[in-house]
Amino acid sequence: MNRTILGRPLRSVAFDVLVSGVVALFAVAGVVQPAGVQATLVGCAMAVALVFRRAHPSAVAAAVAVLALVQVVAGWGPLAYDIGVLIALYSVVKYADRLRDGVLAGVVAGAGVLVAASQTESDLAWWVTAGYFGLVTGGVWLAALNVRTRRLYVLTLEERAATLEREREAEARAAVAGERARMARELHDVVAHSMAVMIVQADGARFMLDRDPETAKVAVKVVADTGRQALEEMRRLVDVLREQSPPEPAAAPGVADPDGVGVAEPEHRRPVAAELPALLDRFRDAGLRVRHTVRGEPPALPPGLDLTVYRVVQEALTNTLKHAGVGADVTVTLDHGPVAVVVRVDDDGHGRPPVAPRPSGGHGLIGMRERIGVYDGSLTAGPRPAGGWQIEARLPLPSTPGTEVIAA
């Protein structure tokens, strides 16, 4: 945790105080020199000004320049605490908002070098002094300019990274919102279909109640089972809509082309897991080498769960086509167990990227995670040790119809 003092990082303040203390120490040490106490006071004033060199670099540089001018006018000559002039020059070039202040400070420092050199007794000494002070001052100015450039570059990178992070978060929120809206529409279709089945079976039972009681009992049982299923889907629909996100964009890519291979799917159409062979054929036509394995006896899944299995395979194959590329070997495995359906999609990652980018089939892992979360499932995705990518989704099966007790 970074501690601050007066709104500034504690480490920076401590370093500036240390620098000022060194300059003040040089000034106090100059008491024994002929310049005496007056020069020491000028040096201490420079040291105090340098404490604020980060917050107000231009003002500090101006104050130090005035103090240095006082020293030159007094004829005290170069003293040890004049290192404060170089520190102020470095600070204004590095920390000033505008480089123009640093250029002006450099011009003033150059003039100071000429004035200090003019106090020498001979022409040779003037050239030597001017050359030495000029090299030191110019070196400090160039070093500060280099540090300023790197500092601004790092700040630009940090700002760009923060902007990209905000954009990724916004895209993720939009993706989740779009996927929730699409899931809500599909679950609404599932519930509406179940209600239609219940109405038809109830009407049939009403007409067959006197003529064929056994058939009427079967119809009533279908109504009860379908009602339980519809109630469960309605609960999931409410859970999806309860956490509302920003509105969905006008055109959702997953609706326009959910397969990601250029085959449009009507918005009102609800695919099922039984149509997976046709889906796999479309991806084979797009260039993937797909193998399909089914383990166990496929149970009669609720419509919403059936749709989720289809969408998971669809999104996984779309991601494979986008990232692994055309020609990749893919294995799609459906493992039907007694308590869950496990969908596994593995690719070797050895395809070639398509020339033109494929349309998105949805929102990738975000969409899959949202869909699977509705049914309390789990999603695992990551690279394979042998290369490529693996996606595994586990979807728990609902309890057996008839075991739920509905209180009156």
Notes on the structure:
The protein has 408 residues and is an alpha+beta fold. It is built from eleven helices and seven strands. It has helices at residues 10-29, 36-50, 57-74, 83-95, 99-117, 123-208, 213-242, 253-256, 276-285, 303-323, 364-374; strands at 4-5, 8-9, 289-295, 329-336, 340-347, 378-383, 389-396. The strands form two sheets. It has a five-stranded mixed β-sheet, with helices on one face. It has a two-stranded antiparallel sheet with strand order 1-2. The longest helix has 86 residues, at 123-208. It is elongated, with a radius of gyration of 38 Å. It starts with a strand and ends in a 12-residue tail after the last strand.
SSE blueprint and pairings:
Elements: E1 4-5, E2 8-9, H1 10-29, H2 36-50, H3 57-74, H4 83-95, H5 99-117, H6 123-208, H7 213-242, H8 253-256, H9 276-285, E3 289-295, H10 303-323, E4 329-336, E5 340-347, H11 364-374, E6 378-383, E7 389-396
Parallel strand pairs: 3-4
Antiparallel strand pairs: 1-2, 4-5, 5-7, 6-7
Helix pairs in contact: 1-2, 2-3, 2-4, 3-4, 3-5, 4-5, 4-6, 5-6, 6-7, 6-11, 10-11
In short:
The protein is 61% helix and 10% strand. With 408 residues, it is α+β, with helices and mostly antiparallel strands. A five-stranded mixed sheet has the order 3-4-5-7-6, covered by helices on one side.
Distance between the termini: 58 Å
As for the number of domains, it is 3
CATH topology of the largest domain: Heat Shock Protein 90
For the largest sheet, list the strands in their spatial order.
3-4-5-7-6
